[in-house]
Amino acid sequence: MGASNVSMQALLAEVLRSGASDLHLSVGFPPAFRLDGRLHMATQIEPLTTEDLWRYAESVLSTRQLEDIRRNKDLDFSFGYTPPTGEGARFRGNCYYERSNLTMALRTISNRIRTLKQLGMPPLLTEVAQKSRGLFLATGPTGSGKSTTLAAIIQEINVQRRCHVVTVEDPIEYLFTSERAIIHQREVGFDTPSFAEALRRVLRQDPDVIMIGEMRDLETVGAAVTAAETGHLVLSTVHTPDAPQSIDRIVDVFPPHQQNQVRLQLSNILIGLCSQQLIPLPGGGRLCATEILYATPAVRNCIREGKVSQLKSILQTSLAQGMHTMDQDLARHVREGRIAMEEAMTYSSDPRDLERLVFDM
């Protein structure tokens, strides 16, 4: 089928019908759908042309956004879509140039915000939603479900607490309907010029909970730490693979002469971290494997003294306190028959340790 006969709406409907997590559109290739972590090219659609890409972009972007992509060659955006039949969804997208050609990547965001229990997340995350102050981080690679985890925590707050939640996102992903809480969502580029500018103003907006889509730079991290110190619950994400590296990433953002002070601040405000990966299941679908760090006195002391390398041993020996390493969680999923050992090995940071955890139990 010629691509010119295939509308963006038809492609989005196919994404929702198939359960794909992502849609890739690029010149010289047919549309590609990511199913359970793996890309599959459409077999009955011809390779896309430059004209096809601009036609698709024009169907989902505003005039201002189209001018932006032409000028800056890169654009983050989001939009909602409801097919003629069935349930709709939101899409988070990025337009970029590749060898002078426009290219698009779209990710599905369900309109339904799943609960922490439905996501199979550890009990610690329910406790996070009850906290009145401190910093909690969801960490992991792109596409590991960090935004979904934070959305579930915010929804838990929404149905349980009478409070004010302010989110700063680029772009807005999950849309919340205020229930017991009042939730205001701000999108970078539309409602505020930048994360840093939004966070400079946020404390004057009487928030109880602040969600920052991503801690990207010194200003953003510094504002998050200040907000947590001044009696707010701050939720955010970091692109790091495990808990120790997440702590190092935050500290390393600051100049060397400030790092000891930041370690002290972080040791006082940290609630915990959830590092996560999404792993394909044999029969389709994916499960979330996690590493959970909870800020016990021993953890706080390691952070304060700069002994982050000792956090792994604390994680390994603190199962009774609700903590575990990624390899311990992968081993649990293998023992319980959810995933094969071979699959778990590809997601393990230490395959030998994983083998020991699986077979020495």
Number of strands: 13
Number of helices, counting only DSSP H or I runs of 4 residues or more: 15
Q: In terms of quaternary structure, what is this? A: single chain
Q: Element order, helices and strands?
A: HEEEHHEEEHHEHEEHEHEHHEEHHHHH
Fraction of residues in helix? 25-40%
The termini sit apart by 55 Å
- Characterize the largest beta sheet: strand count, sense, and whether it forms a barrel: 7 strands, mixed
Shape: globular
Estimate the strand proportion.
Answer: 15-25%
Poorly predicted spans: none
Work out the radius of gyration.
21 Å
| Protein structure class | alpha/beta
Strand order of the largest sheet: 9-8-10-11-7-12-13
**Mean pLDDT across every amino acid position:** 94
In short:
The chain is an alpha/beta fold and 361 residues long.
Structure description:
There is one protein chain. The protein has helices spanning 8-18, 50-60, 63-72, 116-119, 124-128, 146-160, 195-202, 218-229, 243-252, 259-269, 297-304, 311-316, 326-335, 341-347, 351-359, and strands at 22-26, 32-35, 38-41, 74-81, 89-98, 101-110, 134-139, 164-169, 182-187, 209-212, 233-238, 270-280, 286-294. The protein is globular, with a radius of gyration of 21 Å. It is of the alpha/beta class and 361 residues long. Helix content is 38%, strand content 25%. Helix 7 (195-202) runs parallel beside helix 8, helix 10 (259-269) packs antiparallel against helix 11 and helix 13 (326-335) packs across helix 15. It contains 15 helices and 13 strands. The strands form two sheets. A seven-stranded mixed β-sheet has the order 9-8-10-11-7-12-13, sandwiched between helices. Strands 3-2-1-6-5-4 form a six-stranded antiparallel β-sheet.
